[in-house]
């Protein structure tokens, strides 16, 4: 049988994971030298409390997980002889998958013949969430592993995500956004618009002055790139900014008619890199 | 017939300073604004006093010494122009031991030319007009006494006409303050020439008290920067052999104890400046060689440490340095957060001197230094300092308000080539609209004393008995709804709950504009609103 895996960096929570049959790999973050594994060390993610802590000046760090931990996650299914599909966040953003590759090599040697496949969502948080759910839908609808992999070959690049954040010190420190001027972190009210590139990296594609203009840019991206958006979810992710997310959702429906909009709180590990008050929108597009 | 020599010239300058000191408050009060503004009397007085400390044997030397003193001490626009007048005189006296009326008249014409050159767009109806017309009236005088009489009469007449040339003066019902200051100086010079006893000294201008903020180092602070430790050590015969003693023993040891070491020996005195975390160890060790003449130890975490950080002695320079002028704790730290290497305290009622700028350039210690004067009355001083500074390229971004400076600096990408950045910064500054709310100190323009006035670009746009009302009116007059961002800088006297409520109200009124509240802590202006 096919066993699905994803990780907490894709914003999927345990309830939804259970509905789709995903096992969740917990990606940790650290606050003041204490490492926290989402949904292992807590049951429910209190988004407001977490981002308020960041507003208060705390700068969490994130870390990769060990080969040993990957072994613990995957070995039971290798042992049971299940096919495994892991839909994960971007390889281009982390070195954690080096440890996973080692674990998989070990397991493949130990359990030859077990099929292990991956779909790289080439993104993190909301965009990964959208793809993870689409994959889940396909599997639920009875598609085979090969059919899903075939779908992913073309469709992963057809989910576009554009977002902005309030306070760039988080991005600056994490160093994970390219094209961002060195000290733009204090630019008050001026927001770089960032997108997930086809290489699975965060790239700054320009700036917008004021929140209203930044929101306009997100909407204009849907106008420019949107493709068959009505047949897919529009996912609006936010780092504890539900009002702004709702406002964008309202504008989208005003402009494009009733849509299947899902509001997603950004997971704390990804949120550690973008800080509070950020909003992003993911939609089906002609290209990223 | 009186011949002007070095000694008499210095006396004239001192007489001028003395006369101005007696009348400085009157000149401060010639204010076109019904709110506290740049104090012309204070600025000119501090400038001329800086020139009155001169010395020299010939008239040429003395005039040059007066000029360089004023150049360093110049504050405010009127101070800079005053310093340029005397720079022109120094040029006119070049090579002369003394001067007769003709030579004096010629030098005064140099003074006029030099003063006009100090400003890029000379405005008539100001100190420039008063000087020029006074000098024209004195042309052809046969003695120095006659020259001064005619000069003063000409300036007096010209001064009375300044309101006809400048509308702002007419509206405020005052004559030009810089012109009045110059006339007062000229009267003092004449009194000195006549040997009349110097006028009674007026009250001293408010000197900027050394501001030490002890709250910067609390019970829980960690000593990060150490102590700025300075002393003079007198080498003792009982401890060392003075003739053969090699002081590098001391400097070598000191260099292990801290950084920013400045060390030199003059005879038996050693001057030391070092930043160390353990001043006790330094002092104890140095007593092995001598005894102290003076000792000064200061915690560098405290705010005033910037004044003592002498980067002139640091070898490595960074590529880009930033110097800004700001008033208020909040704004000072906001500019620091934005990357300013040195923040000069100053603003509307307190214009920093050229010398203070030069110190700040030293602190910034960079190949290129960008200067944000943040006040229209300070731009000229900044430019003068920039033109005098050697060793670094200094570029003044002519920001007229703190809002312009803040937004302009926010647009700086330190990684970009400076020549590309400068036009962008200037453009960013000029795209900003700044509004100020301050309390009227007298009735004016149909508003009563005590009302809150909303000003922008020196125009009074609105007035309201309530402070919040004035902010809302001002935002509306300035067209807040058309801007993408509105930043409120809360002043020192405005309570936080009021500012937060205003932020909420403005955000509701202008939903398309992002309203941001920052604690500027600035004096005089209870609120500054910046539209960008």
Describe the structure.
- Chain A has 288 residues and is an alpha/beta fold.
- Chain A has ten helices and 14 strands.
- Chain A folds into two domains: 155 residues, Rossmann fold, CATH 3.40.50; 128 residues, Hypothetical Protein Tm841, Chain: A,domain 3 (2-Layer Sandwich).
- In chain A, 40% of the residues lie in helices and 24% in strands.
- In chain A, the strands form three sheets. A seven-stranded mixed β-sheet of chain A has the order 9-11-10-8-14-12-13, sandwiched between helices.
- In chain A, α3 packs parallel to α4.
- Chain A starts with a strand and ends with a strand.
- Chain B has four domains: 188 residues, Serine Threonine Protein Phosphatase 5, Tetratricopeptide repeat; 78 residues, Alpha-Beta Plaits (2-Layer Sandwich); 110 residues, Rossmann fold, CATH 3.40.50; 99 residues, Hypothetical Protein Tm841, Chain: A,domain 3 (2-Layer Sandwich), CATH 3.30.1180.
- Helices cover 44% and strands 19% of the residues of chain B.
- Chain B is built from 18 helices and 14 strands.
- In chain B, the strands form three sheets. In chain B, strands 11-10-9-14-12-13 form a six-stranded mixed β-sheet.
- The radius of gyration of chain B is 26 Å and the shape is flat.
- The relative contact order of chain B is 0.09.
- About 5% of the residues of chain B have low confidence.
- The chains are: A alpha/beta (288), B alpha/beta (532).
- Chains A and B meet through α8 of A and β13 of B.
């Amino acid at each position: 049988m096919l066993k699905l895996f994803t990780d907490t960096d894709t914003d999927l929570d345990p309830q939804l994971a259970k509905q789709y049959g995903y096992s969740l790999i917990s990606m940790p973050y650290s606050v003041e030298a204490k490492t926290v594994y989402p949904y292992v060390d807590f049951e429910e993610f209190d988004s407001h409390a977490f981002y308020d802590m960041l507003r208060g000046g705390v700068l969490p760090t994130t870390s990769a997980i060990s080969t040993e931990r990957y072994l613990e996650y995957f070995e039971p299914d290798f042992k049971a002889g299940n096919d495994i599909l892991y839909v994960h966040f971007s390889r281009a953003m982390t070195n954690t998958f080096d440890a996973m590759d080692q674990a998989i090599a070990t397991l493949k040697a130990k359990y030859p013949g077990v099929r292990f496949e991956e779909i790289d969502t080439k993104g993190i948080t909301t965009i990964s969430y959208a793809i993870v759910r689409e994959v889940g839908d396909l599997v639920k609808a009875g598609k085979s592993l090969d059919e899903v992999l075939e779908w992913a070959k073309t469709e992963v690049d057809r989910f576009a995500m554009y977002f902005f954040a309030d306070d760039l010190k988080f991005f600056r420190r994490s160093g994970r956004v390219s094209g961002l001027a060195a000290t733009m972190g204090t630019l008050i009210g001026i927001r770089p618009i960032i997108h997930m590139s086809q290489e699975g990296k965060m790239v700054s594609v320009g700036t917008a002055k004021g929140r209203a203009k930044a929101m306009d840019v997100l909407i204009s991206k849907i106008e420019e790139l949107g493709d068959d958006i009505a047949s897919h979810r529009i996912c609006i992710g936010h780092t504890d900014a539900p009002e702004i997310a709702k406002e964008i959702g309202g504008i989208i429906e005003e402009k494009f008619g009733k849509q299947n909009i899902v509001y997603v709180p950004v997971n704390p590990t990804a949120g550690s890199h973008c800080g509070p008050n950020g909003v992003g929108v993911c939609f089906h597009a002609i290209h990223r | 017939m009186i011949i002007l020599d070095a000694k008499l010239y210095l006396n004239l300058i001192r007489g001028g300073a003395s006369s101005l000191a007696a009348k400085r408050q009157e000149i401060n009060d010639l204010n076109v604004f019904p709110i506290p503004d740049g104090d012309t009397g204070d600025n000119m007085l501090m400038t001329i006093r800086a020139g009155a400390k001169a010395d020299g044997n010939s008239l040429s030397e003395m005039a040059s010494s007066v000029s360089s003193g004023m150049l360093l001490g110049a504050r405010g626009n009127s101070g800079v122009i005053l310093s340029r007048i005397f720079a022109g005189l120094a040029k006119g006296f070049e090579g002369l031991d003394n001067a007769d009326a003709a030579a004096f008249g010629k030098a005064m014409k140099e003074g006029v030319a030099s003063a006009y050159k100090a400003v890029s767009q000379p405005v008539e109806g100001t100190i420039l007009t008063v000087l020029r017309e006074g000098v024209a009236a004195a042309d052809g005088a046969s003695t120095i006494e006659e020259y001064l009489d005619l000069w003063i009469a000409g300036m007096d007449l010209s001064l009375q006409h300044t309101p006809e040339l400048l509308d702002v003066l007419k509206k405020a019902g005052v004559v030009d303050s810089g012109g009045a200051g110059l006339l007062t100086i000229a009267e003092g010079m004449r009194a000195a020439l006549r040997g009349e006893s110097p006028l009674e000294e007026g009250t001293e201008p408010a000197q900027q008290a050394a501001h030490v903020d002890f709250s910067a180092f609390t019970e829980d602070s960690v000593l990060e920067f150490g102590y700025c430790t300075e002393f003079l050590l007198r080498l003792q015969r009982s401890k060392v052999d003075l003739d053969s003693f090699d002081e590098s023993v001391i400097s070598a040891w000191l260099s292990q104890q801290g950084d920013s070491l400045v060390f030199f020996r003059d005879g038996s005195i050693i001057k030391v400046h070092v930043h160390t975390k353990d001043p006790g160890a330094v002092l104890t060790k140095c007593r092995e060689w001598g005894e102290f003449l003076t000792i000064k130890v200061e915690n560098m975490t405290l705010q005033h440490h910037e004044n003592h950080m002498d980067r002139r002695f640091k070898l490595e320079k960074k590529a880009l340095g930033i110097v800004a002028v700001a008033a208020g704790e909040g704004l000072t730290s906001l500019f620091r957060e934005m990357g300013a290497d040195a923040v000069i305290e100053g603003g509307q009622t307190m214009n920093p001197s050229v010398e203070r700028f030069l110190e700040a350039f030293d602190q910034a210690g960079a190949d290129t230094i960008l200067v944000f004067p943040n006040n229209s009355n300070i731009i000229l001083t900044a430019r003068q300092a920039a033109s005098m500074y050697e060793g670094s390229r200094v570029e003044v971004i002519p920001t007229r308000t703190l809002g312009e400076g803040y937004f302009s600096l926010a647009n700086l990408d330190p990684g970009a080539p400076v020549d590309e950045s400068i036009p962008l910064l200037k453009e960013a500054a000029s795209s900003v609209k700044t509004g100020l709310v301050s309390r009227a100190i007298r009735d004016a323009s149909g508003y009563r004393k005590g009302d809150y006035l909303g000003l922008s670009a020196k125009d009074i746009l609105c007035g309201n008995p309530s402070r919040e009302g004035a902010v809302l009116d001002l935002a509306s007059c300035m067209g807040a709804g058309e801007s993408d961002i509105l930043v409120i800088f809360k002043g020192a006297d405005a309570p936080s709950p009021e500012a937060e409520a205003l932020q909420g109200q403005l955000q509701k009124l202008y939903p398309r504009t992002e309203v941001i509240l920052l604690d500027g802590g600035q004096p005089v202006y209870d609120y500054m609103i910046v539209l960008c």
